[in-house]
Specification:
6-stranded parallel β-sheet, Rossmann fold, 14 strands, 8-stranded mixed β-sheet
């Protein structure tokens, strides 16, 4: 039987990695159901926050890979007619959109889909949650007003990846919006390996340096800790003024902890890096899924996160902590407690974190949910 063609529009894709979760969402999805559907992906030829094209990748032509065909658009090809020509060439059965607030990779494809009568599924990727929406809220309000004025919400099916996201979509877009639930496709490792060897507690932050990821909060917590810990920060600087606030605290800090900014972490090296840390510290104001949380647990790295993610009740399984952002001292106390544990106790919790993540993932159920979404 002929495979259904799915055309994905995504602002960034592999080998890019600086946009984080949205790239992983598409990559993991293709790996999950790439044998069932023919995937065509249209994306930009640069990484997030970069201007230089990827090295060794040709722009403006289809590149065939094992489970996907990818077209990297150069800057001068981000035009309505160029995108129209590609859609006509592919003749997709369905268009899948990987973000909400994108002119070239959301708005233009939706307008084209209406004109060409192609079904559309839009994954909002947590962009309507309270924490995310309040960042640059004025611009997002304007975008949604235009979106609703054109009545585009009546032309598409929205994908929610959690029950809370269903409510976010209804609240922001409208109660009658067509929504289907299909969870994010995670990275799954079947190697349950614990390999930490250091005496000092090693803590890591991985994420965009922007208010929604809450690095400033994390640094303030670390400066209050009264035990020796090493805190490494990885991530692209998305918001310069926010980073300057973080940097000022780091430069004037003279306590017992060690705080390092280590630049951007290439996703190819992510798993090896996570294996060397005891704790992932990510007190973000909201996560649609939290790919980095899942990946840390897959690498036996204990999550210390906010309660604004789908990863709940970690402490009940002795697998980590999901805490309210209303009390900074709770995070301080947990770090000091973790630093007091011996190697066997830390190992037990780290292995519990792995087990917690594995139990959360049902590959067969995920595959079924995407078949329903795309059909």
């Amino acid at each position: 039987m002929k495979k259904k063609k799915i055309l994905i529009f995504s602002d960034w894709y592999k080998p890019g990695y600086k946009a984080g979760g949205p790239i992983q969402s598409i990559s993991n999805l293709v790996n999950l159901v790439g044998s069932i559907y023919d995937f065509y992906i249209i994306t930009s030829n640069t990484d997030y926050l970069e201007n230089e094209p990827y090295v060794g990748i040709k722009s403006n032509e289809w590149i065939k890979r094992s489970n996907e065909n990818v077209y990297y658009l150069s800057g001068n090809q981000h035009k309505f007619l160029s995108i129209y020509s590609l859609v006509k060439e592919v003749k997709p059965d369905l268009i899948y959109l990987n973000s909400l607030y994108s002119f070239h990779y959301t708005l233009i494809p939706i307008l084209l889909s209406v004109w060409l009568k192609i079904k559309v599924v839009l994954a909002v990727r947590g962009m309507l949650s309270k924490g995310s929406f309040n960042v640059k809220r004025n611009k997002k309000d304007i975008f949604l007003k235009i979106f609703k004025f054109l009545k585009l919400q009546n032309k598409i099916l929205f994908q929610a990846t959690s029950l809370s996201e269903i409510e976010d979509i209804k609240n922001r877009i409208g109660p009658q919006t067509a929504i289907r639930l299909a969870n994010n496709v995670p990275f799954i490792s079947f190697e349950r390996v614990y390999s930490k060897v250091t005496d000092r507690l090693k803590v890591v932050f991985v994420g965009r340096i922007a208010p929604e990821k809450n690095l400033l909060f994390a640094i303030q917590v670390i400066t209050k800790v009264k035990v020796e810990v090493e805190f490494d920060i990885y991530g692209p600087i998305y918001n310069n003024s926010y980073w300057m606030q973080c940097k000022e605290i780091i430069e004037h800090y003279n306590g017992v902890a060690i705080i390092n900014y280590k630049g951007v972490l290439d996703h190819e090296n992510l798993n090896d890096k996570l294996k060397s840390y005891d704790i992932l510290f990510l007190p973000s104001t909201g996560e649609n899924f939290g790919h980095i949380i899942n990946e840390s647990m897959m690498n036996c790295c204990i999550p210390l996160i906010s309660d604004q993610t789908p990863w709940k009740d970690l402490e009940l399984s002795n697998a980590g902590y999901d805490l309210s952002l209303n009390n900074e001292n709770d995070f301080v106390e947990k770090i000091e407690y973790l630093a007091s544990l011996d190697k066997d106790q830390l190992k037990e919790m780290a292995l519990n974190a792995y087990d917690f993540a594995i139990k959360k993932h049902d590959v067969n159920s995920l595959e079924t949910s995407y078949k329903l979404l795309f059909n």
